[in-house]
């Protein structure tokens, strides 16, 4: 919720699919089974909630994992560029705005679920229903295009980040292998390392492919929560290692079961994420100052303790791939298997899953400036999904019921802010794409950067 790109989230999108059930039952089947429970009464809804979905803790794990990725490693550089005052305040403000927009989506989805007597509603359908409730006849007539637009952005964004995950995995493992001969157990000295050439990073990408193919066979969010937990633990440990290093030498060294609890889980998760972002960003910049690299891992000493940061991030991102893959898979696969008979459904599902994974791997191998392409994707898709659409959705959903001018002005301001990010981010990405003479850098990870370790 997605930084790193044209929006707040390091993963670049707001994944608010409120269907917290295992993906094996269709909505129609659930409605047929439990239609007596779906009248919206508080006394009966808990029965449905106790039999379906993931727990609040599992939802919190997924929420944090979807929003904490490689982008946090580049935040100290962002503070350097923005300033020690403006940088943290901007992170805090964007965290608040992003959380507010997510609450808008949740409230709107819950409102339409209650109106239409439905157990759940995803992002695309929520936008479609919002347009159907709009006072504009033109928007009502073209409401289905709102759903298609959101679906396109979600697939485009999530598969794009799956591509960058593959690049991150390959290049970080390559760096660890190339520096293994110069890695020591002495973390006090930060000496320059002469890298030992090894095989091309594209071969590392292919080496990860079998593991990714196995991971995407997991279709249940409950099972995926285990991998999300492993990813969170891996990244948490690596961030703790980073934090203890930058702190010890600072100049200042003196799909839930109870869906009604989701807003509270959302606020808690975003508070944790925002605090983490600001803490790493500020401490990292205070420690290294103008010497801060595009990824803070490049500023760490070349010893095994800090090399383990890359290895832990590799493990975390590997576990995260399946979760990022879940959203486009849940959109594409049901449509694909609906076109064939039941006997071919499982075979087609496996084929589509494998084909999508191979596609992300092929794009990671073939696209020469993947960092800028994904920056472009993030600026376009993430700004739209996270900042532009939710405020407009609130207006279309509640306008007929009466909205204060202040609320309308607030929503308009957020959408304008998102649109500015869309325009500026897209222009910047396109400008850098047509400037091949500029060196390739990737601000959200350690890839495409020569690992030269300078003494502190």
What does this structure look like?
- It is a single chain.
- With 456 residues, the chain is mainly alpha-helical.
- The chain contains 15 helices and no strands.
- It has helices spanning 27-34, 45-51, 56-67, 75-82, 86-116, 123-132, 137-141, 143-178, 201-215, 221-248, 262-288, 304-337, 345-366, 370-398, 405-433.
- Helix 5 (86-116) crosses helix 6.
- The chain is globular.
- The model is unreliable at 1-52, 250-254 and 437-456 (pLDDT under 50).
Layout of SSEs?
Layout: H1 27-34, H2 45-51, H3 56-67, H4 75-82, H5 86-116, H6 123-132, H7 137-141, H8 143-178, H9 201-215, H10 221-248, H11 262-288, H12 304-337, H13 345-366, H14 370-398, H15 405-433
Helix pairs in contact: 3-10, 3-11, 4-11, 5-6, 5-11, 5-14, 6-8, 6-14, 8-9, 8-12, 8-13, 8-14, 9-13, 10-11, 10-12, 12-13, 14-15
Summarize the helix and strand pattern as letters.
HHHHHHHHHHHHHHH
Structural class: mainly alpha
Q: How many strands, which pairing sense, and closed or not: the largest β-sheet?
A: none
Q: In angstroms, what is the radius of gyration?
A: 22 Å
> Overall 3D geometry?
globular
Oligomer: single chain
Query: Which stretches are low in confidence, meaning pLDDT under 50 for 5 or more residues running?
Result: 1-52, 250-254, 437-456
How much of the sequence lies in strands comes to under 5%
Residues in helix, %:
55-70%
Q: Span between N and C termini? A: 34 Å
Q: What is the number of helices?
A: 15
Kindly state the mean pLDDT as a whole number?
Answer: 74
């Amino acid at each position: 919720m997605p930084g790193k790109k044209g929006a707040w989230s390091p993963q670049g999108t707001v994944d608010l699919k409120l269907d917290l059930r295992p993906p094996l039952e269709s909505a129609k089947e659930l409605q047929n089974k439990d239609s007596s429970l779906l009248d919206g009464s508080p006394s009966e809804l808990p029965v449905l909630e106790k039999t379906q979905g993931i727990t609040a803790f599992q939802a919190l794990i997924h929420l944090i994992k979807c929003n904490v990725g490689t982008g946090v490693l580049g935040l100290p550089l962002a503070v350097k560029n923005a300033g020690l005052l403006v940088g943290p305040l901007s992170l805090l403000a964007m965290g608040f705005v992003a959380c507010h927009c997510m609450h808008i989506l949740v409230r709107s989805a819950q409102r339409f679920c209650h109106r239409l007597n439905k157990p759940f509603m995803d992002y695309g359908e929520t936008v479609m229903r919002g347009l159907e409730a709009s006072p504009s006849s033109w928007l009502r007539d073209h409401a289905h295009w709102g759903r298609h637009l959101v679906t396109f952005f979600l697939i485009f964004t999530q598969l794009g980040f799956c591509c960058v995950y593959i690049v991150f995995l390959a290049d970080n493992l390559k760096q660890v292998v190339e520096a293994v001969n110069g890695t020591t157990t002495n973390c006090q000295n930060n000496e320059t390392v002469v890298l030992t050439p090894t095989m091309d990073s594209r071969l590392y990408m292919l080496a990860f492919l079998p593991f990714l193919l196995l991971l995407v066979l997991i279709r249940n969010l409950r099972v995926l929560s285990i991998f999300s937990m492993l990813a969170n633990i891996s990244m948490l440990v690596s961030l703790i290692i980073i934090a203890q290093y930058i702190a010890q030498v600072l100049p200042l060294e003196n799909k839930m079961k109870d869906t009604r609890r989701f807003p509270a889980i959302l606020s808690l998760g975003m508070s944790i994420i925002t605090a983490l972002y600001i803490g790493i960003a500020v401490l990292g910049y205070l420690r290294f100052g103008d010497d801060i690299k595009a990824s803070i891992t490049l500023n760490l000493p070349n010893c095994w303790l800090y090399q383990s940061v890359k290895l832990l991030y590799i493990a975390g991102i590997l576990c995260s791939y399946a979760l990022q893959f879940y959203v486009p898979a849940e959109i594409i696969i049901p449509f694909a298997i609906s076109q064939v008979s039941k006997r071919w459904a499982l075979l087609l599902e496996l084929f589509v899953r494998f084909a999508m994974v191979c596609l992300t791997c092929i794009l990671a191998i073939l696209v020469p400036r993947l960092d800028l392409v994904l920056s472009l994707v993030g600026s376009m898709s993430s700004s739209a999904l996270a900042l532009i659409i939710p405020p407009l959705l609130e207006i279309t959903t509640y306008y007929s019921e009466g909205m204060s001018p202040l609320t309308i002005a607030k929503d308009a301001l957020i959408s304008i802010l998102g649109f500015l990010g869309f325009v500026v981010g897209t222009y910047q990405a396109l400008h850098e794409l047509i400037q091949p003479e500029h060196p390739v850098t990737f601000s959200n990870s350690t890839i495409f950067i020569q690992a030269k370790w300078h003494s502190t």
